[in-house]
Fold:
Amino acid sequence: MRGLKLGRSIRRVSIIKADGSGEIVLHKGKKSKKKKQNKELKPMERAVRHMADANLASAKSFSNSHRKSNRKKKNGWLRDISKNIMRANRKGNKKL
Structure:
């Protein structure tokens, strides 16, 4: 039973032995822990999380356009660096 992973919908497991006797073992899943956080800090945490998501979107956008510029032309990444940075910042600001 210890190595067996059961789904969330399973409430009870019955084990029937060879001699016919059966025992019922209740399966209790892992309880999710309550988030420890002050109510006053909740808006600040949310803002920080949104900024992190926006930074990630900006970095992904810049990385994609950098690769595309590099494939298109010789030293293309250097020629298009200002355009790529502006596009990435715009995308990050939209996400924010």
